[in-house]
Amino acid sequence: MTASRHHSLFSFGTLRDERVQTALFGRTVPSSPASLAGHATRPLKITDPDVIAASGLDVHLALECRLGSTVEGAVLHLTDEELAAADAYEVDDYVRRRVRLSSGEDAWAYLDADPLRPAARIVIAGDSIAYGRCDPRGGWAARLATRHIAANEHDHRLFNLAVPGSTLADVAEQTPALLAARRPDTLLVAAGINDSAVPLSAPDRGPDDLAARVAGHLASLAATAREHAARLVVLGPLWLDESRTADYEGLRFTESRALALRESLRAWCAEHHVDHVDLWAPLHGRPDLLTDGIHPTPEGHELLHRHLTAGPERG
């Protein structure tokens, strides 16, 4: 029988209450004081009757990113079973993600289910689609920047570091050196279609080679995000029009490999509790929204922006 592992969970709200712990875990759990820098709290209305009954409150707290602020709380030391009970207690407005505490230690915490809602300083890394190629307005990233900065011009920033032609390997190698000066709390990685490309001169080995490569690059980016106490959000890929990509500047792009990339991203993010925003649906079956089979038109970028900012209900 496998022994239960021990987990560190940063709590800044009702999970510190001994009554809640007894109701969830059958005991009060070991804990130690801790703090989370770069964050503040805001109220969140709760409607789940079971959660209200356990906590005695219909308003809980949610984290938002705020440079220079710190949230005081405690690290709860939980077993596998207790962590699962905590997951069941938290409402759908929260998701469990890794954070780096002020002490430098990593712990789980329940964050806003919409990774963009609490963000303040966003860095985008990716390829030509994230760069905004084929759109004079700068693509979905420029639209996101306009919306984000307008919401709070004093505190919000967005830095687009996307480079046309980049793969996840390029992003994983180049991004770490660029983050310190920008002090991001959120790292959006647009995992573009380049990772699925096969040179025309090479045989198509099928999609089996994608999963391992994607996993290694994403693990490296996750470590980079943790080093900067930033939340990693993986975006993509987009649907492509295979009828126009059989020979694209010496590369072959196919829908089957794009779908394999999509599944690799989703599976890795689900396993490692990392946010994944699937961008396949908005342009699926709409070749009129792609200028060359790969890059969105301005109208395509507008749809991607709406999808990205729709929140967890995006599906």
Automatic annotation (TrEMBL):
Q: Offer one Pfam family short name for this entry.
A: GGACT
Residue ranges annotated for the Gamma-glutamylcyclotransferase AIG2-like domain, each copy included:
9-113
SUPFAM superfamilies referenced in this protein's UniProt entry, alphabetically = Gamma-glutamyl cyclotransferase-like, SGNH hydrolase
Quote the PANTHER family the UniProt record gives.
Answer: THIOESTERASE 1/PROTEASE 1/LYSOPHOSPHOLIPASE L1
Provide the protein name: GDSL-type esterase/lipase family protein
Top-level taxon of the source organism: Bacteria
All copies of the SGNH hydrolase-type esterase domain together span 126-303
> What's the source species' lineage?
Bacteria, Bacillati, Actinomycetota, Actinomycetes, Kitasatosporales
Write down the InterPro entries for this protein, in alphabetical order.
Answer: AIG2-like_dom, Ester_Hydrolysis_Enzymes, GGCT-like, GGCT-like_sf, SGNH_hydro, SGNH_hydro_sf
